Write a sequence for this structure.
């Protein structure tokens, strides 16, 4: 089932998500719905916060052919190194792409879809995407990294688009 | 998170990438462009650089203190596009420099910024003409040598005509409409055009995208060079004849034969299956009966049922040196030593085609080459035989197109707005 993605500046995007206590069938169903939603919106990552659910769960797939779906439950970044700047966009801020600096390499641990504990190292787009999604779980958006000027410009454009629709 | 949409590549950057593919990896122009959405500006850059490759290279090399490394060939190509803009496209020098520097940054070779700046500024101030024969005539040396010895009277105008932009020529499908009616339709649509020298031909005064030309989709018109339109006229088959189109793909001349004489029984043979497929589509578009199509190597004659043909069109694969206006990549990619293997292949093809010809029948040998080795040399060897006789080509004289009689045939000469440099020879088989 496809879910509705919240759009900036929805206040629910600012909530901090709570850890998942137990990986149950309902958890897996949520993850599958989120993957479906993410593919449908042509995203490469989606956090539960973005669909209005305050659980520490996110899905991602940075492959070009939808061949590497991943479910991350209660993810924690253990280590960061290096710097990389890439153009980021967000399904909650559609249509805007801005350069953001992040660690180029991370060590991460999480539970996968089956509740198995995973500890691994990622780099490149995969590392960037994981950092972006974990930020969501903490109520943070990529626009928070931009200058106040750029952020307010995006805000104004979004407000204007809303007025035009209304 | 979502991906940034891929930024549209800068036109100059795309041009550089394609030039590297063509010049370094030897990919033909048409193939390099196949899957790219190249804007008209990119086309202009590519055609321009390939057309003026020799003079542009010389202008660049003059101001390079040492040659660029092989892996920096993209920087060299970028310099060529820069010099083209300065010397041939009336782009202000500062703009050409600025845009080129932008491309260097996108390529990811910031060290080359200073180099690009220095070389392009130096070239912009350098008003000396290119030196060396290749750079002066913008052709490879071996080709200049051939043309100069073969056409002592015409060689300069031929070489300079090759640097011009070819006109867009249309062929009128006379089974559907008349040339005057087609011209009226074009003019009503605001497309300036004149009647060509060949009776089926209309020449547009300005080339334009084919989508804008009425009559293409409905099959009243095809795009074909004026010189190539002579083929059907010269062979001039009549209704009821068994006709062979021996190297048929992609079928421009095939469909013309059928327009010229819809009642013929036509067999089209070619080695390339992929290119043969277009014949079907073309005949459907033009409302013509589809010929019997055979995918086989002509030379081996295994495809032939032994029934002789009344007329044969043999438009052999060749160097393409008669079409340098439309295919300037040939100037850079063609090599002198290919001429001999072409010559052998063409001789074999003519031998095979000759065997399928009925005594009393006629064979039209044609190429889009301006080199004697692929033209007169092939035909002369054949016409010296007892069973062959050289037939005249009065239609070429009547058309008024510039040409040279070669003994066995006629070589068209490219002039600005004129035809591609086709070669034709018509041979009859003695009964």
């Amino acid at each position: 089932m496809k879910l509705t993605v919240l759009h900036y500046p929805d206040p629910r995007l600012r909530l901090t998500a709570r850890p998942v206590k137990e990986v149950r069938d309902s958890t897996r169903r949520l993850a599958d719905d989120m993957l479906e939603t993410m593919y449908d919106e042509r995203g490469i990552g989606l956090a539960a916060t973005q669909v209005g659910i305050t659980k520490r769960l996110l899905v991602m797939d940075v492959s070009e052919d939808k061949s590497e779906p991943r479910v991350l439950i209660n993810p924690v970044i253990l280590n960061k190194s290096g710097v990389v700047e890439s153009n980021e966009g967000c399904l909650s801020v559609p249509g805007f792409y801005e350069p953001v600096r992040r660690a180029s390499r991370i060590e991460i641990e999480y539970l996968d879809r089956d509740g198995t504990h995973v500890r691994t190292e990622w780099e490149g787009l995969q590392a960037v995407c994981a950092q972006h999604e974990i930020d969501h779980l903490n109520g943070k958006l990529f626009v928070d990294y931009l200058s106040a000027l750029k952020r307010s410009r995006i805000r104004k454009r979004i407000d204007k688009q809303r007025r035009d629709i209304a | 998170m979502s991906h940034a949409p891929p930024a549209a590549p800068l036109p100059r950057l795309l041009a550089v990438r394609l030039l590297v593919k063509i010049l370094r990896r030897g990919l033909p122009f048409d193939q390099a462009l196949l899957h790219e959405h190249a804007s008209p500006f990119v086309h202009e850059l590519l055609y321009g650089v390939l057309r003026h490759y020799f003079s542009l290279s010389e202008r660049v090399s003059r101001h390079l203190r040492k040659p660029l490394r092989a892996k920096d060939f993209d920087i060299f190509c970028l310099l060529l596009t820069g010099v083209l803009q300065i010397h041939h496209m009336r782009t202000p020098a500062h703009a050409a420099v600025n845009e080129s520097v932008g491309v260097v940054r996108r390529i990811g070779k910031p060290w080359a910024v200073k180099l690009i700046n220095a070389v392009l500024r130096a070239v912009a101030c350098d008003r000396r003409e290119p030196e060396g024969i290749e750079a002066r005539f913008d052709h490879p040396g071996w080709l200049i040598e051939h043309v100069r010895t073969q056409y002592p009277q015409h060689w300069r105008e031929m070489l300079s005509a090759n640097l011009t932009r070819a006109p867009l020529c249309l062929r009128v499908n006379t089974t559907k409409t008349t040339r005057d009616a087609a011209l009226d339709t074009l003019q009503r649509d605001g497309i300036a055009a004149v009647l060509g020298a060949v009776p089926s031909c209309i020449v547009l005064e300005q080339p334009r995208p084919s989508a804008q030309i009425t009559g293409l989709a409905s099959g009243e018109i095809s795009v074909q060079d004026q010189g190539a339109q002579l083929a059907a006229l010269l062979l001039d088959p009549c209704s009821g004849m068994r006709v062979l189109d021996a190297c048929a793909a992609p079928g421009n001349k095939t469909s013309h034969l059928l327009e010229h004489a819809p009642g013929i029984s036509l067999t089209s043979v070619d080695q390339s299956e992929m290119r043969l497929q277009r014949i079907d589509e073309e005949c459907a578009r033009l409302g013509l009966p589809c010929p019997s199509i055979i995918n086989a190597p002509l030379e081996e004659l295994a495809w032939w049922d032994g029934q002789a043909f009344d007329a044969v069109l043999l438009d052999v694969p060749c160097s393409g040196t008669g079409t340098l206006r439309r295919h300037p990549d040939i100037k850079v990619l063609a090599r002198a030593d290919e001429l001999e293997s072409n010559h052998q292949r063409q001789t074999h093809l003519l031998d095979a085609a000759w065997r399928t010809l009925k005594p009393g029948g006629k064979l039209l040998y044609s190429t889009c080459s301006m080199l004697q080795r692929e033209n007169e040399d092939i035909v002369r060897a054949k016409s010296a035989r007892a069973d062959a006789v050289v037939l005249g080509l009065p239609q070429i004289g009547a058309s008024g197109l510039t040409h040279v009689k070669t003994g066995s045939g006629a070589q068209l000469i490219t002039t600005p707005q004129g035809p591609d440099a086709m070669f034709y020879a018509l041979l009859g088989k003695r009964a």
Q: What stands out?
A: The helical segments of chain A are 25-40, 125-137, 148-165.
